[in-house]
Amino acid sequence: MLEPAAKTSTNPSISQSAKHILSHKSRNKNHKKIAGVSLVATLGVVLSACSSSTSSSGTTTSKAPAHLPPLVMESSQESSVTQTFNPFQSNSASTTLGMNSLIYEPLLQFNPANTSTIYDWLATGYKWGTGGKSITFTIRSGVKWNNGTPFSAADVAYTYKLLESNATLNTSGLPLTGVTQSGNTVTLDFSSPQYDNLQAIASVYIVPKSVWSKVSNPTTYTDAVPVGTGPFVFSNYNSSGITLKANPHYWQVNHVPEVVFPTYASSSAAEDALLNGTATWEGNFIPGIQKTFRATSKYHLTYFAPVNTNAFFPNLNKFPTNQLAVREAISLGINRTLIGKIGESGLEAPVTNAGGLTLPAFSQYLTPAAKKLTENVTPNIAAARKVLENAGWHLQNGFFYNAQGKELTLQISDPSNYSDYYSDDGLAVKELRTVGFNAIRVGNSDNAWYADIADGGFELTQHWSLTSINPYNLYDNWLGSNISSSAGNFERLNSPQVDTMLANVAAQSTVAGEAKALVPLEQYVATNYPIIPTVYGAAFMEANSTNYTNWPSPTNRYESGSPNAPTNEVVILHLQPRS
User: Among 51, 63, 101, 551, who pairs with 566 as Cys (CB 3.0-4.6 Å)?
Assistant: First the structure.
């Protein structure tokens, strides 16, 4: 059995909060510096009787028993998909279906359900350089690509150099200035301190140099038969979905022989598959789920880990949501309590802090100054109207008009098959029409909605925040001008002032320092409304444990239960056959 890997760092808070745990190692699409523990070591504790061998390099290989049934999972309701597996494309099938981490893997894995835990993955350790402007990863040996060829530090270095030279692939906006390989270590250099950006840095999917170096354009590469280090390989594609089979060269124990990602034309089709036992694992909002699913069988499981902050995203480049008064009136006019109680069936609590900090997950970062930023959880219609009137809007026949006679119209759009968001939007429309907005709800298809987010065709849309283990990643993904509009910053904020605030947060080496540095960002969100927080989002999980056990739960928080990547890989590798 491997021992938990030790972390070394010049960041004091990493060392001080180091936690070695001997247990198994977001919302549908939905999605403290710490020391990690190798999942290989973890599995060695619990699954040693099932392991076929442990190599001298410290990696364990195992073939999934073929007699076990496949895992049928749904992390996104897609009516059709293509045979595309480029992990850097937001619209590839592997991304939209949530299978990226089952094929490709990152250096580290993170646990948003218990933010004090990080797991070693393709890296067995890391060390920050002086001032947090560089980080050196020790790369795991003994790993193979699914075509049987050796994985090495050269592949890691190549992947990060690919991001450094191609901004389109660098969707998290990592400020890379250099990548150096030395033996089994890879050092990344940055233009600014990155202590609090470990999750974005170490979550990059590593691709094989031998394949990708021959690709003429990696941004458009379809990657139809992907070569990765993950626990599964591509098996079959058809109009009904995609099937992956167990990787025979995988370096960890995997008991699941096959994973099937079916396409569902609607949320009701996905729900029916769950209720009739066709689907094993989903991550959908389903009204009355505890009664219709959980209570119908002892093998039916649900878990709703609070991991992020949902928000309305106003398009800052389109009228009328590019107007501060309009955004403030929207925030004052919506009913966060009803959104949580009715739209989200009581599974997600209304946001109470206007700064947007995810609570209670990040309560240790809530300073006295941030606590003063209280949020209205019920509408204040009079205050919303007053804000608009002070900005020059006037109420006429129930709707506001500006000085040029232009009516205050507003389209709130989301996929119609996201039943909770679609319901939330309807509640918001009702309240905002009371304020004086000529607001309407628009139900898009998944593909149309993603296209609107990517090209800025929307006015106001609801979205989950990045599921993160550190507040910096939450705010950077929301507000950073370096973030690709397909990955975050959907509102398209471009503020040097905010970027400076974010850089100050990333440079902090202690929780106390980060909490203090977050205050200007929290105040900016509370007063400028670049995003409009609504409820504290949950990672939805519905699972059928008839064939597999050891799913995440409130008492077994080794990971959130989201079937999305990358958490789904962590969960699958914990699953054990029911004896």
Answer: 101
